[in-house]
Amino acid sequence: MAAHPWQTMRLPSRRTAVAPDGSDVRVLLRVAGGSMAHFELGPGETSIAVVHRTIEELWFVVRGRGEMWRGRDGDAEEVVELHPGTCLTIPVGTRFQFRSFVFEPLAAIGTTLPPWPGEGEAVPVPGPWTPTVTG
To answer: Is 4 a domain residue?
Structure first.
């Protein structure tokens, strides 16, 4: 009997990796077209600003409050408020940095398209805020 192609899992209770931006990652599932992870930044923390070389992401904030800065070479920059229910895109080549406000962690579910390729995908760039974490 052949194995089913379905996968099921629960959110890991602890981080399984540290993202290049310094946030805690709980790696979730992946399929041929994309991968998913849970990102968390502690209260009052600021990530490292990065840019992705080949992937784009969709984020959905599930906990906390904060801000995200996004910018592209030659284009306008913006800072958006993050709170539960906020969904945003990070297109290929977008520089971004995020920070959590002091009272609780900031957590988001992120989908990477195509799947996260690994080491070297995210490159540190100058951002508007001083990072408080290490990658």
So the answer is: no
Q: Could you report the per-residue pLDDT of 13-22, keeping only the tens digit for each? A: 999 999 999 9
Dihedral angle at the C-alpha atoms of 36, 26, 40, 125, nearest 10 degrees?
Answer: -70
Number of helices (H), then strands (E), in the chain: 0, 11
| Residue 42 within any structural domain of the chain | yes
Domain with 57 in it: 17-124
pLDDT at 120: 92
Listed residue (90, 95, 98) closest to 24, CA to CA: 98
Return the number of other C-beta atoms located less than 10 Å from residue 59's C-beta.
19
pTM: 0.92
